[in-house]
Specification:
Elements: E1 5-8, E2 11-14, H1 25-29, E3 32-40, E4 43-44, H2 47-60, H3 69-83, E5 88-95, E6 112-119, H4 125-130, E7 132-137, H5 157-168, E8 173-177, E9 183-186, E10 190-195, E11 198-202, H6 212-223, E12 228-231, H7 235-239, E13 243-248, E14 252-259, E15 262-263, H8 271-282
Helix pairs in contact: 6-8
Protein backbone atom coordinates (compact mmCIF):
# COMPACT_ATOMS: atom_id res chain seq x y z
CA UNK A 1 0.00 0.00 0.00
CA UNK A 2 1.23 3.53 -0.74
CA UNK A 3 2.40 5.60 2.22
CA UNK A 4 -0.26 8.16 3.23
CA UNK A 5 0.62 11.77 2.47
CA UNK A 6 0.00 14.39 5.15
CA UNK A 7 -0.37 18.16 4.85
CA UNK A 8 1.86 19.95 7.37
CA UNK A 9 2.29 23.73 7.39
CA UNK A 10 1.96 24.23 3.65
CA UNK A 11 3.89 21.17 2.51
CA UNK A 12 2.99 17.54 1.85
CA UNK A 13 4.97 14.81 3.59
CA UNK A 14 4.85 11.00 3.74
CA UNK A 15 3.19 10.07 7.02
CA UNK A 16 6.40 8.66 8.48
CA UNK A 17 8.24 11.92 7.70
CA UNK A 18 5.61 14.37 8.98
CA UNK A 19 7.03 15.60 12.30
CA UNK A 20 6.45 18.44 14.76
CA UNK A 21 8.85 19.85 17.33
CA UNK A 22 8.85 18.71 20.96
CA UNK A 23 8.37 22.42 21.71
CA UNK A 24 5.10 22.49 19.78
CA UNK A 25 2.34 23.60 22.16
CA UNK A 26 0.10 20.80 20.97
CA UNK A 27 2.68 18.21 22.04
CA UNK A 28 3.73 20.00 25.21
CA UNK A 29 0.33 21.09 26.56
CA UNK A 30 -2.43 19.80 24.29
CA UNK A 31 -2.80 23.47 23.32
CA UNK A 32 -4.78 23.24 20.13
CA UNK A 33 -7.94 22.25 18.34
CA UNK A 34 -9.07 19.54 15.97
CA UNK A 35 -11.94 18.79 13.65
CA UNK A 36 -12.88 15.39 12.23
CA UNK A 37 -14.66 15.41 8.88
CA UNK A 38 -16.01 12.75 6.56
CA UNK A 39 -16.04 12.60 2.79
CA UNK A 40 -18.65 10.64 0.87
CA UNK A 41 -17.50 10.11 -2.74
CA UNK A 42 -15.17 13.12 -2.31
CA UNK A 43 -18.06 15.29 -1.07
CA UNK A 44 -17.18 16.49 2.42
CA UNK A 45 -20.07 16.46 4.85
CA UNK A 46 -20.63 19.75 6.69
CA UNK A 47 -17.33 21.29 5.59
CA UNK A 48 -18.43 24.88 6.13
CA UNK A 49 -19.95 24.04 9.52
CA UNK A 50 -16.75 22.32 10.65
CA UNK A 51 -14.68 25.31 9.55
CA UNK A 52 -17.11 27.70 11.27
CA UNK A 53 -16.57 25.80 14.51
CA UNK A 54 -12.81 25.69 14.02
CA UNK A 55 -12.50 29.45 13.49
CA UNK A 56 -14.91 30.29 16.32
CA UNK A 57 -13.06 27.95 18.69
CA UNK A 58 -9.70 29.41 17.66
CA UNK A 59 -11.00 32.88 18.52
CA UNK A 60 -12.18 31.67 21.94
CA UNK A 61 -8.69 30.40 22.85
CA UNK A 62 -6.80 33.40 21.39
CA UNK A 63 -5.35 31.38 18.52
CA UNK A 64 -5.00 33.30 15.28
CA UNK A 65 -5.10 31.08 12.21
CA UNK A 66 -2.81 32.26 9.43
CA UNK A 67 -4.83 30.49 6.74
CA UNK A 68 -8.12 31.57 5.21
CA UNK A 69 -11.13 29.26 5.00
CA UNK A 70 -10.53 28.82 1.26
CA UNK A 71 -6.88 27.97 1.83
CA UNK A 72 -7.86 25.28 4.34
CA UNK A 73 -10.51 23.94 1.96
CA UNK A 74 -7.98 23.75 -0.87
CA UNK A 75 -5.49 21.96 1.37
CA UNK A 76 -8.15 19.42 2.40
CA UNK A 77 -9.19 18.62 -1.15
CA UNK A 78 -5.57 18.45 -2.30
CA UNK A 79 -4.84 16.00 0.52
CA UNK A 80 -7.71 13.80 -0.65
CA UNK A 81 -6.54 14.02 -4.27
CA UNK A 82 -2.90 13.22 -3.51
CA UNK A 83 -3.97 10.19 -1.48
CA UNK A 84 -6.50 9.03 -4.06
CA UNK A 85 -9.27 8.95 -1.46
CA UNK A 86 -13.00 9.06 -2.09
CA UNK A 87 -14.77 7.87 1.08
CA UNK A 88 -12.55 9.06 3.88
CA UNK A 89 -12.11 10.45 7.38
CA UNK A 90 -10.20 13.72 7.53
CA UNK A 91 -8.68 15.23 10.65
CA UNK A 92 -7.58 18.84 10.83
CA UNK A 93 -5.31 19.60 13.79
CA UNK A 94 -4.31 23.15 14.65
CA UNK A 95 -1.94 23.91 17.52
CA UNK A 96 -0.47 27.15 18.81
CA UNK A 97 2.78 26.09 17.20
CA UNK A 98 6.37 25.90 18.35
CA UNK A 99 7.13 28.25 21.23
CA UNK A 100 9.56 28.59 24.11
CA UNK A 101 8.97 26.51 27.23
CA UNK A 102 6.40 27.88 29.68
CA UNK A 103 2.65 28.34 29.49
CA UNK A 104 2.59 32.02 28.49
CA UNK A 105 1.27 32.52 24.96
CA UNK A 106 3.59 33.97 22.32
CA UNK A 107 1.23 35.64 19.87
CA UNK A 108 4.00 36.13 17.33
CA UNK A 109 4.50 32.42 16.67
CA UNK A 110 2.85 30.64 13.75
CA UNK A 111 0.30 27.89 14.38
CA UNK A 112 0.92 24.32 13.31
CA UNK A 113 -1.67 23.02 10.83
CA UNK A 114 -1.94 19.32 9.99
CA UNK A 115 -4.42 17.61 7.66
CA UNK A 116 -4.47 13.81 7.72
CA UNK A 117 -6.90 11.74 5.66
CA UNK A 118 -7.52 8.00 5.78
CA UNK A 119 -10.03 5.58 4.28
CA UNK A 120 -13.35 5.40 6.09
CA UNK A 121 -13.73 2.54 8.55
CA UNK A 122 -17.42 1.93 9.20
CA UNK A 123 -19.03 0.19 12.14
CA UNK A 124 -20.41 -3.32 11.60
CA UNK A 125 -23.92 -3.43 10.19
CA UNK A 126 -25.04 -5.26 13.34
CA UNK A 127 -24.25 -2.17 15.42
CA UNK A 128 -27.03 -0.33 13.58
CA UNK A 129 -29.33 -3.36 13.43
CA UNK A 130 -29.06 -4.32 17.11
CA UNK A 131 -27.91 -1.07 18.71
CA UNK A 132 -25.05 -0.54 21.13
CA UNK A 133 -24.66 -0.24 24.89
CA UNK A 134 -23.72 3.02 26.60
CA UNK A 135 -22.46 3.79 30.10
CA UNK A 136 -23.33 6.87 32.14
CA UNK A 137 -20.59 8.52 34.22
CA UNK A 138 -21.57 10.94 36.97
CA UNK A 139 -19.80 14.26 37.51
CA UNK A 140 -17.50 13.64 34.57
CA UNK A 141 -18.32 16.27 31.95
CA UNK A 142 -15.19 18.37 31.37
CA UNK A 143 -15.13 22.03 30.50
CA UNK A 144 -12.38 24.50 29.76
CA UNK A 145 -12.17 27.28 32.31
CA UNK A 146 -12.68 30.67 30.72
CA UNK A 147 -14.42 29.28 27.62
CA UNK A 148 -18.20 29.56 27.57
CA UNK A 149 -18.69 26.88 24.92
CA UNK A 150 -17.52 23.33 24.48
CA UNK A 151 -14.76 23.11 21.85
CA UNK A 152 -12.79 20.35 20.12
CA UNK A 153 -9.69 20.79 22.23
CA UNK A 154 -6.56 18.67 21.82
CA UNK A 155 -6.64 18.38 25.63
CA UNK A 156 -8.68 15.19 25.39
CA UNK A 157 -7.48 13.09 28.31
CA UNK A 158 -10.82 13.12 30.18
CA UNK A 159 -12.64 11.72 27.15
CA UNK A 160 -9.90 9.18 26.48
CA UNK A 161 -10.07 7.77 30.00
CA UNK A 162 -13.86 7.69 30.14
CA UNK A 163 -14.07 5.96 26.76
CA UNK A 164 -11.62 3.33 28.00
CA UNK A 165 -13.70 2.86 31.15
CA UNK A 166 -16.81 2.41 29.02
CA UNK A 167 -15.09 -0.13 26.79
CA UNK A 168 -13.94 -2.08 29.84
CA UNK A 169 -17.59 -2.23 30.91
CA UNK A 170 -18.53 -3.65 27.53
CA UNK A 171 -20.08 -0.40 26.29
CA UNK A 172 -19.52 1.36 23.00
CA UNK A 173 -19.61 4.86 24.47
CA UNK A 174 -19.37 6.70 27.76
CA UNK A 175 -21.96 9.41 28.35
CA UNK A 176 -20.77 12.22 30.59
CA UNK A 177 -22.99 13.83 33.23
CA UNK A 178 -22.34 17.22 34.77
CA UNK A 179 -22.18 17.85 38.53
CA UNK A 180 -25.98 18.11 38.63
CA UNK A 181 -26.37 14.65 37.06
CA UNK A 182 -27.61 16.21 33.84
CA UNK A 183 -26.58 14.59 30.56
CA UNK A 184 -23.91 16.43 28.60
CA UNK A 185 -22.55 14.35 25.72
CA UNK A 186 -20.54 11.26 24.90
CA UNK A 187 -16.78 11.10 24.75
CA UNK A 188 -16.99 11.12 20.94
CA UNK A 189 -20.65 11.86 20.29
CA UNK A 190 -23.75 13.88 20.97
CA UNK A 191 -26.75 12.06 22.44
CA UNK A 192 -30.47 12.18 21.62
CA UNK A 193 -33.43 10.58 23.34
CA UNK A 194 -36.99 10.02 22.18
CA UNK A 195 -39.91 10.09 24.63
CA UNK A 196 -43.58 10.06 23.57
CA UNK A 197 -42.51 10.74 19.96
CA UNK A 198 -40.64 13.91 20.95
CA UNK A 199 -36.96 14.13 20.01
CA UNK A 200 -34.79 15.65 22.73
CA UNK A 201 -31.11 16.51 23.05
CA UNK A 202 -29.10 18.42 25.68
CA UNK A 203 -29.02 22.15 25.04
CA UNK A 204 -25.70 23.68 24.10
CA UNK A 205 -23.57 24.95 26.97
CA UNK A 206 -20.00 24.75 28.26
CA UNK A 207 -20.35 20.95 28.52
CA UNK A 208 -22.12 20.21 25.22
CA UNK A 209 -20.42 20.50 21.83
CA UNK A 210 -22.28 21.97 18.89
CA UNK A 211 -21.95 18.80 16.83
CA UNK A 212 -22.31 19.13 13.07
CA UNK A 213 -24.25 15.87 12.75
CA UNK A 214 -26.33 16.93 15.77
CA UNK A 215 -27.31 20.11 13.91
CA UNK A 216 -28.25 18.20 10.75
CA UNK A 217 -30.40 15.72 12.70
CA UNK A 218 -32.30 18.58 14.33
CA UNK A 219 -32.84 20.17 10.90
CA UNK A 220 -34.08 16.86 9.51
CA UNK A 221 -36.51 16.55 12.40
CA UNK A 222 -37.92 20.02 11.78
CA UNK A 223 -38.24 19.45 8.01
CA UNK A 224 -40.10 16.19 8.66
CA UNK A 225 -42.45 17.70 11.26
CA UNK A 226 -40.93 15.73 14.14
CA UNK A 227 -41.29 17.60 17.45
CA UNK A 228 -37.84 18.30 18.89
CA UNK A 229 -36.45 20.13 21.89
CA UNK A 230 -33.04 21.22 23.13
CA UNK A 231 -33.29 21.16 26.89
CA UNK A 232 -31.88 19.77 30.14
CA UNK A 233 -31.91 15.97 30.17
CA UNK A 234 -31.50 14.10 33.43
CA UNK A 235 -29.96 10.71 34.08
CA UNK A 236 -33.43 9.26 34.66
CA UNK A 237 -34.64 10.65 31.32
CA UNK A 238 -32.15 8.36 29.58
CA UNK A 239 -33.27 5.29 31.54
CA UNK A 240 -36.93 6.07 30.83
CA UNK A 241 -36.51 6.97 27.14
CA UNK A 242 -38.31 5.10 24.39
CA UNK A 243 -35.28 5.46 22.10
CA UNK A 244 -31.70 6.69 22.44
CA UNK A 245 -29.17 7.34 19.71
CA UNK A 246 -25.73 8.85 19.27
CA UNK A 247 -24.42 11.12 16.53
CA UNK A 248 -21.07 12.14 15.17
CA UNK A 249 -19.38 12.48 11.81
CA UNK A 250 -18.07 8.94 11.73
CA UNK A 251 -20.97 6.96 13.21
CA UNK A 252 -23.77 9.12 11.71
CA UNK A 253 -26.91 8.08 13.65
CA UNK A 254 -26.22 5.09 15.88
CA UNK A 255 -28.95 3.48 18.05
CA UNK A 256 -28.20 2.75 21.71
CA UNK A 257 -30.42 0.03 23.17
CA UNK A 258 -28.90 -0.53 26.61
CA UNK A 259 -27.61 1.90 29.21
CA UNK A 260 -25.64 0.51 32.16
CA UNK A 261 -27.23 -2.92 31.48
CA UNK A 262 -30.70 -1.35 31.54
CA UNK A 263 -32.84 -1.98 28.46
CA UNK A 264 -33.98 1.13 26.60
CA UNK A 265 -37.55 0.80 25.34
CA UNK A 266 -37.98 -2.68 23.92
CA UNK A 267 -34.23 -3.16 23.55
CA UNK A 268 -34.27 -2.62 19.78
CA UNK A 269 -33.51 0.41 17.57
CA UNK A 270 -36.63 2.56 17.49
CA UNK A 271 -38.57 3.75 14.45
CA UNK A 272 -37.59 7.41 14.81
CA UNK A 273 -33.91 6.52 15.09
CA UNK A 274 -34.07 4.40 11.95
CA UNK A 275 -36.04 7.04 10.08
CA UNK A 276 -33.59 9.83 10.92
CA UNK A 277 -30.61 7.71 9.90
CA UNK A 278 -32.32 6.92 6.61
CA UNK A 279 -33.03 10.61 6.00
CA UNK A 280 -29.46 11.49 6.96
CA UNK A 281 -28.03 9.10 4.38
CA UNK A 282 -30.55 10.22 1.79
CA UNK A 283 -29.33 13.80 2.09
CA UNK A 284 -26.08 12.77 0.37
CA UNK A 285 -27.98 11.57 -2.67
CA UNK A 286 -29.34 15.03 -3.43
Amino acid sequence: MPVPIVYLNGLFWPLDKAKVSILDRGFAYGDGLFETLRAYSKKIFGLDEHLDRLFKSAHLIFLELHMTRNEIKSAIYETLEINGLSDSIIRITVTRGEQKSGINIDNESSPTVVIHARPTTTLPVLAYKNGVTISLFKNSAPKIIGVSKQIKSCSYLSQILLREMALKEGSFEGIMLDNNSNVAEGTISNIFIVKANILKTPELNEFVLSGVTRKVVLELAVSNNIPCKELTISENDVYEADEVFLTNTGIEVLPACYVNDHKIGDGKPGPLTKFLHKMFLKSFEE
